[in-house]
Write the structure tokens for this entry.
Amino acid sequence: PIMQRTVFERSVVDGFRVSRVESLVCSNQGKKIFAATADGAITAYSLSMESNSAGRIYTCKDPDMFRKPSKDKKSVAPLVVAESWRVVLCIADGVLTSYDTQFHTLRHAMNDNKGISLFSIYAQVGSDSVVTVNKKKLSWYAFKSDVGFILQREFNLSDTPKSLHYITAHIAIVGYKKYYEVWDVLSGSCHRLLDIEKEHKNTVVTLPLPPPNTSITTPPSAFSPFLFLFTVGSNGIILDLDQITAGHPITNPTATQPT
């Protein structure tokens, strides 16, 4: 018999009082929620769970708006949680900023690179790092919990990117209006990966698929990223790491169903 695995379970959440939410992330194995609003505020909730005959009921408690609305009412979205770093990151007033996920205090601010529009992190022991985009500049930083962001290298880009996705310790995907580039921030090499006929919002999604014969109880966080989904117009294209790092464009990609 085929064992079916439930991917999503819909439950009631009480006590959430944040409006105009632009970004929402969980931390501490779902026991805490961070919500960023359109005016730049960030609120943290602790999340408790109870079970009854109707199912699971989650309750938001202890709200803490640890970042007040900004003067210019600009959003800080997207929020990104790095559990191993114990921080939640965002772009606040053009500066990549991190806050402690437990105490909600300011931890680090990338003050040497104000005006960034995109960032992406790679959180693995020994390779903790961040890439950022500021206009037509790609920057690569190491991350140390005691000192924060340490600039490693900077690169000039061909245009202003629309998306940024850090997929391994030194490989970043940069998406433009009509194409994707692959950057090796360690060597500084770059190559065109995919061309797109029509301009659209470029997105790359990591698919952490389990290897064969993996136990159904193994958490997805334990899987290595084998595949990556690229949006191309109204369709998606799935590529593996070898295809991405081969050093030449994908000329005849096989598209998935419309995304």
